[in-house]
Amino acid sequence: MHKEVKAWHQAQTKSDKAICELLYETITTALPKAENKVWHRHPVWFLDGNPVVGYSKLKDCIRLLFWSGQSFDEEGLHPEGSFKAAEVRYTSIEEVNIKDLKRWLKKAATIQWDYKNIVKRKGKLERLM
Fold first, then answer.
1. For residue 50, what are the domain limits?
2. Which of 80, 86, 89, 118 is deepest in the core (most CB within 10 A)?
């Protein structure tokens, strides 16, 4: 585990840390070629420099975010923001459905919008896959 991600996990409550560690293990197993680091103050995974999945601490939950998640056509993921991101929020480890998570991660590897070049394209997203 990247030292910054480990430190981020250590700063969470016991129940939030358990959720994060389950997410971490599942994501790193499903996306073995992805780069993982703390980006904008939370753990994020990148494929070829493009952010695909990450999680963060909100006031009352852990939010799992898929940057291209609105294109997954999946129940359980909710639109987030004004681009193509979708999220799911967890308040306990029992809420994490591993089967759904693995399916979403498989889609994250194959369905991507080009967030890496969004600034260069002046806010316009293009589909990569």
1. 3-110
2. 86
Residue 119: how many other CB atoms lie within 10 Å = 8
pLDDT tens profile 19-66: 999 999 999 999 999 999 999 999 999 998 989 999 999 999 999 999
**Residue for token digits 């197993």?**
29
Helix residue ranges per DSSP H, the chain:
3-10, 14-30, 98-110
Taking residue 58's Cβ as centre, other Cβ atoms within 10 Å add up to 11
Measured in residues, the chain has a length of 129
| Distance from C-alpha of 111 to C-alpha of 76, rounded to nearest angstrom | 17
- Crossing angle between the packed helical segments 14-30 and 98-110, to the nearest 10 degrees: 50
What does the H/E/C string look like for 55-119?
A: EEEECCEEEEEECCHHHHCCCCCEECCCCCCEEEEECCHHHCCHHHHHHHHHHHHHCCECCCCCC
Question: Is residue 118 in some structural domain?
Answer: no
Domain of 28, CATH number, reads 3.90.1150.200
